[in-house]
Design a protein that fits this description.
2 copies of one chain form a homodimer. The first copy, chain A, is α+β, with helices and mostly antiparallel strands. Chain A is about 30% helix and about 25% strand. Chain A has 12 helices and 18 strands. A 7-stranded antiparallel sheet of chain A has the order 16-15-14-13-12-18-17. In chain A, strands 3, 4, 7, 8, 9 and 10 form a 6-stranded mixed sheet that branches. A 3-stranded mixed sheet of chain A has the order 1-2-5. In chain A, helix 2 runs parallel beside helix 5.
């Protein structure tokens, strides 16, 4: 058990952006919401999942939609509480803890804001160990936990409760509703018992995000030293450095989809890296060869500072360094790879280890 | 008070097809469901709205979607009960009567099926006096009654409860969900008190549909005599007779939209009639002149039998007669005309009386 105070949010924000692998939504707005909630209601208790009681209801909360929309469609502040309370009402039970669906991006912050408001602890963990674009892409799904009942709330006051036959149907119904709501919505879903949470959560990812953020923001260290730590302490692999030549994006179907192209610099001169994304970076192709794929993390960072950069803020000429990080072992299971492997996203390749090619 | 038995369903079906004005969904499948329910649970009580108690909950039930899809996406039978029960659960109250949203098309039958199952009476009336394509196009909306909480259920077992900020938002959220569910869904919506129903319902439309059906199916009368009755007893105006030259349809956005073109026969020889529809017929243009528009009813009938024909079953060469019928007075109010007048559907004309031009 530890507490999260306002001064932790800077580190968490940077670490969560790295785990967002280009997507996840810039944590900026979520950070403002968490800051406001902590300054009003006080620090938040962060619990290891084993510190939870044996019985009780856990409710995860998040924002859903295209990151490009999320950064412009600011919640009014009441939606998260409304979404979580809606599930409590539907289930006729009060939550004992709030959980994070994805440690990457804005969804590292949304649960903190509602936990502070409700005076509930947050579990140190998530269901991805990163960010993924679709609702069924969770360790909860891999462990057979249903995403519904699920509540969706928008900033105008519209409110839906979904009961779906399976998690892919939940994704489909929630995605179309999110698009109808304007491209982003606040959600509460995967309500579960503390017992289920203990089995299914990807552990320690909030602390991990804070540690990554602390490292990347530590200007007392040189970029080279920070880079060393990323490799030694976090399994990172640098596989490219260069500048952005082109970013193509479209967001019509509730996702930000597109391609990033970079030309190499330094020891990567004459190389071209292409990254394709659906909110999050899915596949990296260096000079025609696949060098990294989901579920591993493909992270684009500023070349001079190593601060991670979200896809929507990349612009022509930006100097970047690209890293891969290994995914959580849950994704190496057969159901895990079926759910988030490159073939699910339509690529005709198998996942290969980050360490095999570079 | 009277009862509806299986032998009434034939008349109701034909009359409801006429009131469906080309859309509303062919009552055939609904008729099978109502027949099955009546033969299992017994006849249904049809109540005048004034026979309802002063206090109590009334729940309307319907099918939503493109009629072209409805005729191919057959409910499994449990959806209507699930949708109505879902609203009862949400509101914490049992219904005392079932109501019809639209007397035109399949939605004349859906409420009967669930009323028989639940042993509840059906109110003799609806909210349109015909069929309209969108959820807010109801006398309930004109009287300020909210469409939500609204339940949507599909044949697979998916289930949504919507709470929207207003009725156009309900339409938007329900329409996208219906499209995601495959183009058609069973809905329960506009839950209201018996007191509200007494103010807002369009009265007597179930009996009216049965009377129309009885007339149109009465083969002891000549077509000319039936035509006379349509004009004298129901205010009908014949404004065209001819054959179908072309029907263009598309159903991508949850509606069946398109245009019907007919070339004239007999006294309409050398004339061309064009009808545009969004599920229901919206506007009829004879030789370039608007002769009828929503909210009046534009009804296409078989030329030899006067049996009404839905848009999805019209084919090249079909001999048809086209009638207009006056709409319920609720649509002549300012809010009524804003909700369903020709300008709402994007036509730059005002509604003109059926009797002015022909």
């Amino acid at each position: 058990m530890r507490t999260i105070t306002i001064k932790d949010l800077g580190d968490l924000s940077v670490g969560a952006t790295l785990l967002g692998t280009g997507g996840g939504g810039d944590p900026y707005i979520g950070k403002l919401m968490a800051e406001a909630a902590i300054s009003r209601y006080g620090p938040i208790t962060l619990l290891d999942v084993d510190e939870l009681p044996n019985e009780g209801l856990v409710i995860p909360a998040a924002m859903m939609g295209a990151p490009t929309v999320m950064v412009e469609k600011i919640p009014n502040g009441g939606e998260i509480l409304k979404a979580v309370s809606s599930l409590e009402r539907t289930l006729g039970q009060k939550a004992v803890a709030i959980m994070t669906i994805e440690a990457g991006g804005i969804n590292s912050m949304i649960p903190l804001a509602v936990a502070a408001q409700m005076g509930l602890p947050v579990i140190d963990g998530d269901s991805m160990g990163r960010a993924f674009p679709e609702l069924q892409m969770t360790s909860f799904h891999v462990h057979g936990i249903r995403a519904t009942p699920m509540a969706l709330v928008d900033e105008k006051g519209n409110h839906l409760v979904i009961e779906a036959i399976d998690n892919p149907w939940t994704e489909r119904l929630a995605r179309t509703a999110t698009v109808a709501m304007g491209g982003a919505a606040i959600i509460a879903l995967y309500p579960m018992t503390t017992r289920q949470a203990k089995t299914a959560v990807v552990r320690g990812t909030i602390n991990k995000a804070m540690a990554l953020g602390r490292l990347l923001r530590d200007v007392s260290m040189s970029v080279e030293d920070r880079s060393q730590h990323l490799q030694q302490d976090h399994g990172g692999v640098e596989f490219f450095s260069g500048k952005v030549a082109d970013v193509e994006r479209h967001s019509g179907d509730g996702f930000a989809r597109g391609t990033l192209a970079c030309t190499g610099l330094g020891r990567y001169a004459d190389s071209i890296l292409r990254i394709e994304f659906q909110n999050e970076n899915l596949i990296a192709i260096l000079d025609g060869k696949v060098v990294a794929t989901v579920p591993d993390l493909i992270c684009v960072m500023d070349r001079e500072t190593l601060i991670p950069v979200t896809t929507e803020s990349l612009t022509y000429g930006h100097r970047v360094t690209v890293y891969g990080f290994p995914c959580d072992p849950v994704w190496h299971t057969s159901k895990g790879m079926d759910t988030v492997g490159p073939r699910y996203f339509g690529y005709g390749v198998d996942h290969t280890s980050l360490y095999s090619g570079v």
